[in-house]
Fold this protein.
Amino acid sequence: MGLSDLVYRIYGKRIQRHLDRGRLPQHVAVLMDGNRRWARALSAPTSSGHQAGAEKAREFLGWCDELDVNVVTLWMLSTDNLNRPEEELVPLLGIIESLIQDIAATGRWRVYPMGALDLLPPRTATVIKEAADRTRDLDGMHVNVAVGYGGRREIADAVRALLHEHAAKGASIEEVAEVVTVEGIAEHLYTKGQPDPDLVIRASGEQRLSGFMLWQSANSEYYFCEALWPDFRRVDFLRALRSYSERERRYGR
């Protein structure tokens, strides 16, 4: 361990020691951004950046579990990412599949699909569904795997599902219109039944949501970190938690 690593470890322990456990987020969502730039900076194949990002996701889940976070949402692949060149997309999907299988294999965490699985290759969709089925009855941390996810698509899917549900019961257009409410749409989101994210973290220095959890993040706190996702350290996570714990949440008031 280098001197800088030792210093950051000591610093991280100091931050954690002073965290108010009663003010920590129960749902943390993260945009794992910067994998490709990380690889480019090393003149390495893009796939190596995605692999490093997957390894960081495994670490991140361990940090969350240690601090009793109940729900974690990992944005692994957007709907826009599905348009990437095949030579990048195919290895990326394989890395995502392995990551999801590893999360399920821990036997501690529940995997929950979050995205338009019908847009994914059959193998990827099957891996996600099998991981969810395998972990359904576990009592541990809930891990949302956002693959083939887009915030606008999610809202459109929710409204569509709401309309189909009531149309199937024979409701008229006027009756259906009455159920298109905030509560009705929320009950048909990918994350139905879950608490909205308390804290949304984005790595890589970008300061935008890019359509991530547009509905659910209306009252979330945001934390933007300069580190590219593969370089995101435990101390960066602790800083995000410290920042969150020091804020006064107003929930739009």
